[in-house]
Specification:
The protein is of the alpha/beta class. It is built from 15 helices and 14 strands.
């Protein structure tokens, strides 16, 4: 069967004029090698899916990926930037330095079995990989291993570096790594993400700042001696009132959302402690910084007016992504060669059932097999990621692979279910092949790197100086991923 499979791949490449013109023998070899090892990487991703560890708590997941890379001859630095589960794995030397980003954190409150209906896991784990980071990290590692083998066999000069980046979900892990200068000598960085389609888009997203405002008052009996108390909850509510009035006077494409995370214990006790948690988003990180500054002033005013005190803690913050068309075109060309995800009959039935649980009008499971046309959009995506900071330091490129049935929303139980199914692992291998082939192109064609850097410099401007939104704060290792 193994020989038959290899002969089938050979026949496909030799007798397909389109593929024959666009893919080298080295790329063919990498595709075959990844297919031969797919069971191993499927099991790796499934193990991380089962761990479902939250941000900065991904000890088992991170260690599993580290062990694979170490066994493959990569040198490792662990606990970088003061983050226990972060790591850097390197192979080779000299320039260029090509970086691949790997994530592996889960989300809270989305426990789900790998079935096409709502069913929480029986083991009691309340977290789940609703954003597909178990596939993300494993796919990058599998791609890196094959690129390393190609570099070794062909004596390719350069450095391949895997940045193991924890706590993307609210913890801003990459931002701390950027702040520590861990990308300063990198020439190109690349990553992929789980999704419901195979695509490469040249677009940006939303910068974000997340902050908790904590008010402290004086507790007393709310009926017996209210005049002696100062309500911390009053401070929260006054701040929220001012912030809601401010919505009329901020850029219309801004986003401000909040939850009161602590409001007191009982109505007859004046709350001595209260807390409100805010997210600020905008396509331009400079506007986010301005919104953050105005919110701090509002919080200070609320404390002054209610006779309370206030302190705040930045829990995270990241820049908007600077897209790179030069690199995106290279990734798209390789994605077209690899193609999309073909479902088996069993996977097709699973996808059909899952798609009945959300609005999938106009979508079919067959669409997972297609590659979307290359697109450029001036409209930013309504999401945030700590990869944004990386993109302001080094040219960054990404892609999406169909690890979920078409239309599946991210951060949902449906995404967890699909990510634990064989269709999710197939999408992961689409990304792994595309990422590996792109890395090969970059090592072999330094002019691509030069053009990508020029595009970065033009987009960010000559007066850019990196000042992270998080400032000098230390990472919140105790509750990242739980925000």
């Amino acid at each position: 069967m193994k020989k038959l499979f290899i002969y089938s791949i050979y026949f496909l490449f030799i007798f397909s004029p389109v593929l024959a013109q666009k893919i080298s023998n080295d790329k063919k070899s990498i595709i075959v090698a990844l297919d031969e090892k797919k069971s191993f990487y499927h099991n790796t991703a499934l193990t991380i899916w089962k761990h479902a560890e939250l941000g900065y708590q991904e000890y088992k997941s991170s260690q599993l990926l580290q062990d694979i890379l170490k066994n493959e001859g990569f040198t490792l630095e662990v606990g970088v930037a003061g983050l226990p589960t972060a790591f850097i794995a390197s192979y080779g030397s000299e320039k260029p330095v090509i970086s691949m980003l790997a994530e592996f954190d889960a989300l809270p409150g989305v426990s789900q079995e790998a079935v096409p209906f709502r069913k929480e896991r029986v083991d009691g784990n309340q977290s789940g990989h609703a954003c597909g980071h178990h596939l993300f990290g494993t796919g990058i590692v599998s791609a890196a291993v094959e690129v390393k083998n190609w570099m070794k066999n062909n004596k390719v000069k350069g450095t391949l570096r895997i940045h193991g980046t924890p706590a993307e979900e609210g913890g801003s892990g990459k931002v701390y790594m950027v702040r520590e200068g861990l990308f300063d000598d990198v020439d190109i960085s690349m990553y992929w993400h789980a999704g419901n389609q195979n695509s490469v888009r040249v677009t940006s997203n939303l910068a974000i700042a997340s902050v908790k405002y904590r008010f402290k008052g004086i507790s007393t009996h709310a009926a017996g001696a209210p005049e002696r108390g100062r309500s911390a909850l009053d401070g929260v509510e006054v701040m929220n009132y001012m912030m809601n009035m401010m919505r009329e006077h901020i850029p219309s494409d801004s986003r401000m959302h909040y939850v009161i995370t602590k409001g007191g214990e009982a109505p007859n006790v004046v709350p001595a402690n209260a807390e409100v948690y805010y997210f600020f988003r905008h396509p331009d990180m400079r506007v986010v910084k301005d919104l953050l500054g105005r919110s701090i002033v509002a919080a200070e005013g609320a404390a002054m007016g209610t006779g309370t005190s206030m302190n705040y803690e930045m829990t995270g913050g990241s820049f908007n992504i600077l897209p790179n068309r030069i690199l995106s075109e290279v990734v798209h060309a390789n994605l077209k060669i690899v193609g999309g995800v073909d479902y088996t009959e069993e996977e097709y039935i699973f996808a059909k059932k899952l798609m009945t649980t959300f609005n999938s009008e106009g979508l079919t499971p067959e669409m997972a097999a297609s590659v979307k046309p290359f697109s450029i959009s001036e409209i930013p995506g309504n999401y945030s990621t700590d990869a944004g900071d990386v993109s302001w330091i080094v040219p960054l490129v990404s892609m999406s692979a169909a690890t979920w049935p078409p239309g599946t929303p991210g951060h949902s139980w449906q995404a967890v279910a699909a990510g634990g199914n064989s269709m999710g692992f197939k999408g992961m291998m689409v990304a792994a092949k595309t990422m590996a082939m792109t890395a090969m192109d970059l090592f072999e064609n330094p002019t691509i790197i030069d053009k990508a850097k020029l595009e970065l410099y033009q987009r960010r401007g000559s007066d850019f100086k990196y000042e992270p939104i998080i400032g000098n704060r230390t990472p919140a290792l105790d509750y990242a991923g739980k925000h």
